[in-house]
Structures are given as C-alpha cells and as structure tokens.
Design a protein that fits this description.
mainly beta, four-stranded antiparallel beta sheet, 81 residues, 56% strand, 6 strands
Length: 81
C-alpha cells in the first residue's frame, strides 16, 4: 500500500473493464471516481477513517450490481509508506 499525496490521484485497475481513481483531498477526505467500460459510473467525496469503510456501488447489466469498499489504512500497519 502506498500513500497518495495531498491533491494527487492514483488509479487502481479493478478488472479489464473497470478502474477506480482515488484523489487525496487532504484532512482524511478522498474523491473517488468509479469508471466502467470507459464511462464514469460514480464520482463522490468521502471522509476516511481506519475504523470505518466507505462503500460505493451501483446497478449493472443483467440484474447485477457492483460495489467497491475502501478504508484508511492504519499508518502503523501500512507498508511502503
């Protein structure tokens, strides 16, 4: 796990068709963009905490859905800071 510097964005490939972009807004806040098949499916801002999960989800084709769970990593447990 690597930290994301304030005002910087990192992309995380979830599958061949999906990725998420996480931007560090500072003060334990992030902006998350969920992109599926080249189209933005969701963009939202959230407060992070090592003890709480942020869960983002939505509808997909064929009566299915998707979701992503994120949380702040306890810095004492993080590697490659």
């Amino acid at each position: 796990v690597k930290s994301i510097a304030v005002n910087q964005t990192r992309e995380f490939k979830m599958s061949d068709r999906c990725l998420i972009k996480v931007k560090n807004l500072g003060n334990s806040r992030i902006e998350v963009s969920c992109i599926g098949q080249g189209k933005e499916a969701n963009k939202s801002s959230h407060a992070l905490s090592p003890t709480k999960w942020v869960v983002i989800g939505g509808d997909a084709k064929n009566n299915t859905a998707w979701f992503v769970g994120l949380r702040e990593v306890d810095k004492s447990l993080a590697k490659n800071q």
